[in-house]
Structure formats: C-alpha cells, structure tokens
Amino acid sequence: MVEAFNADLLYLLPFVAIGFCAQAIDGALGMAFGVIVNIILVGFLGIAPATASTQVHIVKCFTTAASGASHFYLGNFDKQLFFRLLIPGAIGGIAGAFLLSYVPSKIIAPFVLVYLSAIGLWILVRGLISSPKIRPPKYVSSIGATGGFLDSIGGGGWGPVATSNLLVQGAEPRTVIGTVNSAEFFLTILISATFIVNLGFGDILGPTIGLMIGGVFAAPFGAIVAKYLPKRLMFILVGIVLTLTSILAIYKSVSD
To answer: What's the whole-number average pLDDT of the chain?
Structure first.
C-alpha cells in the first residue's frame, strides 16, 4: 500500500511543478496558465482537446479562486471593470464550451494564435520604447465575450485576450491582471459546468489533482509580484510571455 502511495505521489509531482510554475506566471502577468497546461496535455500527453480543456477548467476553478482572493486582498482589483468583463465573458464562455463539445477547434485556433503573437509583440515594443500612459479602457464588453469564447475552445484564451487587449488600450496593469484573474474564477465555473453537462465526469482526474495542488500554492505569490512589479517591466514581461506561448502553440499545431 505504501509503494502504491509513493508511485501515485511520484506520478503527481511533475504536474504539481507544472501547475505551480504556470499559476505563478499567470497570477503575476494575468495569463499563461491555460495556455501552458493545455499545450502540455494536448501536445505532449496526447489528450483530446475537449478533455484537456475540461481538465484545465476544473483545475482553474480552484486556482482562480485562490488567485482572485489574493489579488482582491492586495488591492489589485477594479469593481467596475470586473462586471464589465464578467457578464459578456460568461456568455462567450458558455457558447464556446457548447461549440467545442461538438465541433473541433483546429480551424479557428491558428488565426487566434497569430493575432495573440502580434499583440504580444506590440505590448513588448511599447514596454521597451517608453513607459505606457495609463487611461481607462473602452472596448471591455467585446473583449470579455471574445476572451470567454476563446478560453473555452482553447483552454486558455481568457487571460491572453482580456489582459493583452486591456493593456493595449492603456489600462493600469496591476488592476487589469487582478481583475481579469478574479473574473476568471466565475467564468471558469460556468465553462466547467457546461463541459461536464455535455461530456460527463469521465477523464477529468489524473493530472488534474497535481495541477490543482501546484496552482493553488502558487496563487498568492503571483498576486504579490503583480502588486509590486513596475508598470513598464510588466508590459515587457506580458509581451514576452504572450508572444512565446502563442508561437509555441502555433508550432505545435503546425507540427501535429
């Protein structure tokens, strides 16, 4: 019995590490958990996209709760922006979850990844050239709906779409990242429930437990980093992470 426990623990440890690293990046920069984990599950472990997206969203029910609470406690939160993102995001997320349950996402994914790569490069250039000016974002509802839809069909579109597009408009990085992470919890609950209704409970465990443990432990660290990182450095880091993860995802989709 002890040997079986040790074997299970050894099996989970890599996923704990992946979950910790992915959530630490996500909590600090407002993106990358779903993208990183989804690439590993689909690209390296051969899990079906719908199953992988379900697993990612089950994990994110817990990691986004911990991350959102940490950001709220540290003041990385904008109440008005939260509700402007959440409602359209929920509608888009549920629609995307229904679509993915019946239609493959390979057709739209490459176009989205190219777009995110371009946005990542633009954010990186803005951060390198000068300190970005802060101003209220305008196109929030459409960003929320698009982010929710792409998140459910790709397992990780909410952070890259919502965070990057709000930053491009000049929103405050710290509150954008905290608010996007907080809204993601409610969005994830709705998307996960939709997946489970359509696909059932089968095949949602396995790596899920390890990813969940690592992600929950990393959540407070990400929120602390987001609070104290300089704005210009945050733009540069967001640009690098978004560009690299998008290019990696493009490479995986082309090579498959």
So the answer is: 75
